[in-house]
Amino acid sequence: MEREYVEQIADRDDNYSQWYLDVVQRAELADYAPVRGCMVFRPYGYRIWELAQAKLDRRFKETGVQNAYFPLLIPESIFQKEAEHIEGFAPEVAWVTHAGQEPLAERYLVRPTSETIIGTMYAKWIQSYRDLPVLINQWCSVLRWERRTVPFLRTTEFLWQEGHTAHRDEADARERTMMMLEVYRAFLEDDLAIPVVPGRKTENEKFAGAVDTYSTEALMGNGRALQAATSHYLGDGFARVLGIEFLDADGERKPVHMTSWGLSWRVIGALIMVHGDERGLILPPSVAPYQVVVVPIAPESRREEVLAEARRLAASLAATARVHLDDRPEYTPGWKFNEWELRGVPIRVEFGPRDLEAGQAVIVRRDDGTRRSVPLGEAAGVVERELAALQRSLFDRAARFRDEMTHPAATVDELEAILKDRRGFIAAGWCGDGACELAVKERTGATIRCLPLDAGAPSGACVCCGRPAVHQALFARAY
Ligand SMILES: [Zn+2]
Fold it and tell me: What's the mean per-residue pLDDT of the chain?
């Protein structure tokens, strides 16, 4: 029986959130787990994560970062050392209180983030300025109890990486903070084709225990913002409470300056929402599990000869791309086209009896639907060029959309009208007072996503109170 996949996903314009959930499920990226707030990362989705992870991990290592692994459980006494930190995370922490039937002498929490446990080890390892810097990352899952959950965007347990570094002084730690922000920007833009705005978070929005938090902010297809990665300068606060001190060259004992930085599987949600269309997912070739799917089209009588040549074609493409030959006889070509479109495969190659006779194949791009016939001998080269072009055009399209959806506002009324009308990023002056930021949030639901690094000198007045603007801020409703 022919199934129409496209009819199985909600209309993207009418019901964006249902469209998102449908794509997650129908593309088999993830499924709901029998654990409240948790999801199962299915093989197709997990493969995207693996490909993205490998690219980001290589970028980390190019800056001297090494991977390690620390325990899942953190003793309460350690976690409580940094007061702001515990206060920030307390409402969403899960506690382990028993081993079997026996109550534990000390409670453990399931890590919501690992600054304290990692810092505790750094206190042992760092003695001298010669031991610095320490540049460690871990790939793991963390747990933050959430009330409302959405696959990839907000789940109780989620996969991420957290980097933790220790430095001799503030300048070195701040340099690392900005370096990792740039690593994230390059990864998001060059590998995931997601344009981002790098900037600094306000006091209200920064990480619990950080001196400064920086983030990369992306705009989703429905005009809502999503924070795609963060990089924190932690100062010496964690070092002081955890006793991470070193003997400097001048003979003085000093606390280290620290950073932490993280990116989670939220970026999979961003991939769906930045690139997807009414037919489903569109994956950037760099992280597509299959960059090319070859679909043979053959009547029963010529099946074997078409299939034999399709296999040769797939093998020749496999030298330069991740290729899948969909030779399942129980599905029609039309059904397969729909399925691979829904699952976001960048390029489809159609191959039928007429192509066999003409010695050619038909290449179809997922992003714009363009089709072209190419001689078999040139197929590999054309596919390679088209994949590169598609990667670029996904980024360009998303950047254009982001620019078109960024509007200035001079007053809260204007800001509110833009949000009602078309959402998007709103660039506005801000006096720097947290009370103004909260007033805007209360009235419009928009928060300051970041103070963009390239915003230039502020001009005009605070969008809220009318006093002179100290910052140019980027407001949006966010996930
Ligand atoms: Zn103000």
Answer: 95
* pLDDT at residue 2, rounded to an integer: 47
* Residue 275 token pair: 């690139």
Beta-ladder partners of 348: 293, 364
What pLDDT digit, counting tens, does each position of 93-113 carry?
999 999 999 999 999 999 999
Q: How far is CA 411 from CA 5, 161, 226, 458, 466, in A?
A: 45, 39, 24, 15, 8
Residue 466 CA to ligand 1 centre (angstroms): 6
C-alpha of residue 467 to centroid of ligand 1, in Å: 6
Residue 126 CA to residue 12 CA, distance in Å, equals 53
Tell me, yes or no, if the pTM score tops 0.85: yes
Ligand 1 centroid–CA 434 distance in Å is 8
Query: What's the CA gap between 460 and 453, in Å, rounded?
Result: 18
- Give tens-digit pLDDT for 412-443: 999 999 999 889 999 999 999 999 999 999 99
* Strand 471-476 versus strand 447-452 pairing type: antiparallel
Share of the chain above pLDDT 70, in %: 99
Q: Return d(Cα 381, Cα 333) in angstroms, integer.
A: 25
Cα(117) to centroid(ligand 1), Å? 39
**284: Cα within 13 Å, side-chain hemisphere:** 30
- Residues in Cβ contact with 55 at an 8 Å cutoff, skipping those fewer than 6 apart: 187, 191, 286, 287
CA-derived radius of gyration, the chain: 25
- CA 435, chain centre distance (Å): 30
CB atoms within 10 A of CB 57: 16
